[in-house]
């Protein structure tokens, strides 16, 4: 549902009620491209595990898990789709597909915060400094500001909004709480705070492979992976010349943001103490 649907109409005065198309979406095109999930198992490995009756099940589960993790990795790190990807140069699968974060950069740049500007639009900082003397005093303040200014009003109060972050930003927020001696009552309070995992009064969701200096504020259901029907193909071949069994598997997919208005991306976040730098900048002749 994109926006509110409540309204009033003076039907006694002849004004007809005007229903709203609650499912109306902006035209966002998508194109499912092929992604390969190819691997091999050497004869030696097969022989080693052959005595386990559930070996085939273990291999299947391991591959499904790896495929899912790779889809997450490309979704949060992919910036382009190369004709032939290079894993050594792009270990986070940056060249496998255009992921959700890059879709925001390409399709909704007004909802991406990556620097700080003044009221005239001049850049005052190429990064978003969080901490003493920075642009924001805390990550909570940054999330609140981004939510208030980059997300449409009818989504700002949505109970499903979350902050998607990586491990590092969560550590930056909670490490100072636990990195000190505490009595039992303070330790219990710290445990409660950490267990809640909230940033800017929104639930914090940690996902694997998310960029360390970024956060995505949106609903989890707003991020989709589209699969083309009947595009999943798999061929298993035995290659005795190299003493291995090869698995060739592919599917056509695309990463889709359902509604850009329901989220925003904040990146290039730097957490630290900037008070010395701020003081030096403020001093005449500095």
UniProtKB/TrEMBL annotation:
Bias (Polar residues) ranges: 1-12
Highest taxon above the source species: Bacteria
Record region (Disordered): 1-20
Name of the molecule in the record: Phage major capsid protein, P2 family
């Amino acid at each position: 549902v994109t926006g509110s649907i409540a309204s009033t109409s003076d039907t006694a005065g002849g004004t007809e009620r005007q229903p709203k198309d609650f499912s109306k979406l902006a035209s966002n095109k998508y194109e499912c491209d092929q992604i390969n999930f190819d691997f091999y198992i050497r004869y030696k490995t097969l022989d080693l595990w052959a005595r386990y009756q559930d070996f085939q099940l273990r291999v299947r589960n391991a591959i499904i898990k790896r495929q899912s993790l790779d889809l997450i990795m490309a979704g949060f790190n992919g910036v382009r789709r190369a004709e032939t990807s290079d894993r050594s140069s792009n270990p986070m699968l940056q060249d496998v597909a255009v992921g959700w974060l890059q879709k925001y950069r390409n399709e909704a740049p007004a909802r991406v915060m990556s620097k700080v500007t003044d009221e005239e639009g001049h850049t005052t900082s190429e990064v978003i400094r969080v901490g003493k003397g920075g642009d924001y005093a805390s990550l909570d303040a940054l999330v609140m500001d981004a939510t208030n200014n980059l997300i449409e009003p009818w989504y700002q109060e949505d109970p499903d909004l979350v902050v998607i972050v990586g491990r590092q930003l969560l550590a930056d927020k909670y490490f100072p709480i636990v990195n000190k001696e505490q009595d039992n009552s303070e330790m219990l309070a710290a445990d409660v705070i950490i267990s809640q995992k909230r940033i800017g009064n929104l639930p914090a969701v940690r996902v694997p492979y998310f960029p360390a200096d970024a956060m995505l504020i949106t609903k989890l259901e707003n991020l989709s992976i589209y699969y083309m029907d009947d595009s999943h193909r798999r061929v298993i071949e035995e290659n005795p010349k190299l003493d291995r069994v090869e698995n060739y598997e592919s599917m056509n997919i695309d990463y889709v943001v359902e509604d850009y208005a329901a989220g925003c991306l904040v990146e290039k976040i730097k957490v630290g103490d900037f008070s010395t730098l701020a003081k030096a900048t403020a001093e005449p002749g500095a």
